[in-house]
Amino acid sequence: MSSFLFNLAALVVVIAGIKACTAVLVPFLLSAFFAVLMSPILFWLRRKGLPDWFSIVFLVALFIVVETGLGALLGTSVAQFSRELPVYQERLGTIYNGITSFAKKLGFTDVELSVLKELDLSRVMGIVASTLKSMGVLITNTFVIILTLVFMLLEAGGMVYKLEALNLLGIRKTDELRPIMDGINRFFAIKSFTSFLTGLLIWISLLIQGVDFPALWGVCAFALNFIPTIGSIIAAAPAVLLSLVKLGFGNCIVTLSIYVIINIAVGNILEPRLMGQGVGLSPLVIFLSMAFWGWVLGPVGMFLSVPITMSIKIAMAVHHRTEWLAILLGTNSEAAALLSRAGKENDR
Fold it and tell me: Whole domain around residue 287: which residue ranges?
């Protein structure tokens, strides 16, 4: 019992230290996130015979171009959205008043309708605007992020040689490190591809439909797709409400259908086929990780919550002593598949 309390106290101290160092940790974690995304490209360029210095310069230049483009897009779109926000809120307020008036005609009392005050759609649009502004945190501290990214890519490029050197020395810990590194790289590579595909399809579909700021909602769909289930709902809300305000109820249903179809096709059909078993997270774990890392690291923590938790799960799954924790963090379908495999082995 005393050991448990000591470990719990140490965990509290560590969390308090992380929260106190948020200003330093956020650029570092963002750099680590981008470095993991770029490392497969770095290794691919190395296999093509290109020197590491050229590959790193190319990747950093590509990162600067993409970040500059996203910064310009987000800055312009968010500014325009903020200017139009009072109009959107006024129209949503009219819709909300119409709903409450209709409910009163059906016999609902003011006390019963008090719940609807928490669902005021005009307030939702205000939250969306403030959230979009906070996304600017992801593209701040550019110099620190780029500098850290360069050193991380240099370290990633030499990690293969370090692992081989450790093997020559007879140190077998590399047998545990390789599956962890391969699992994390594979997860991020596939997740980046499916997120990009989701964002691209959302952007094209909303552009064809005529919803305002389709590129902005495409970028939001790409970023929030790293948060399974919950991220898709958050990404869809502003576009669906905007479609309701500007295009009417019928087009609102069409916009909602677009999000549902694309997320089912990519998230529930394509992604599991590419990922395979053992790379999912329980919806409760996703929600709790968003709340926890958002509290510790702010808005960036919510964005990085699932990548951080997924990396922890992959690392736990490699070790026999912590494999049970990886199972608890995973989905119910993964546990059912594990039981099914165990049953088949017992039948043999």
Answer: 278-348
